[in-house]
Request: fold
Amino acid sequence: MDLQGIAALVTGGGSGLGAATAEALAAAGARVAVMDRNAEAARAVAARIGGTACAGDVTREEDVAAALDAAGALGPFRLVVSCAGIGTAKRLVGRDGPHPLEGFTRVIAVNLTGTFNVMRLAAARMAAVEPGEEGERGLVLNTASVAAYEGQVGQVAYSASKGGIVAMTLPAARELARFGIRVNTIAPGLIETPLMGELPEEAREALGKLPLFPRRLGRPSEFAELVLAVARNRLLNGETIRLDGALRLSPQ
Reply:
């Protein structure tokens, strides 16, 4: 896909992976709508890249539709990158009893249902644009996690949500192929995000030693580089790509 002049939507674009992705897409010539629940953060990133800010929640159809309207006003809408998500750490059975059901459903709602909500609405918009080279109309790129494969103790809800995103990838790609829309997923490992920055320095140093090579935390810019590579390589479709330095998570 030629990124020059296309319109793109990045959810969770106010910080971390989403902000880095929005910046990289804009630098590559795309016109980017930045969606985030934090309106101020979305505006800051959009101002920095010359894009459009959209405050909203990915679980709300009207919020996603408004963000897609904003993206569509920028040019032919061909790319959506879903980076919005939340984390949680709660044991299935802990000192306080069983895992709260509302905690599980909230993580599923944001991470899995929110990703599905964005994908279905974005794909419907992409299906209406003129096809490009080889009939390609667009790309849906979702964000999972290595926890989809090696969820640790306390990650049952998070792993379920990210595993669902991985499981959606191939059937969605098969279904949307008739429109010339590709679907891929990136499963990052340990990335230097604002959430990671809240940990004590010694904890961050210990985590940085877990990947085999390079032996450090990943950088949001490296996630963004992979987004660009996936967008530009038309043969990548229906695939989940681990971005983790050969990391394999231990049980704890």
User: Anything to note?
Assistant: The two ends are 40 Å apart (CA to CA).
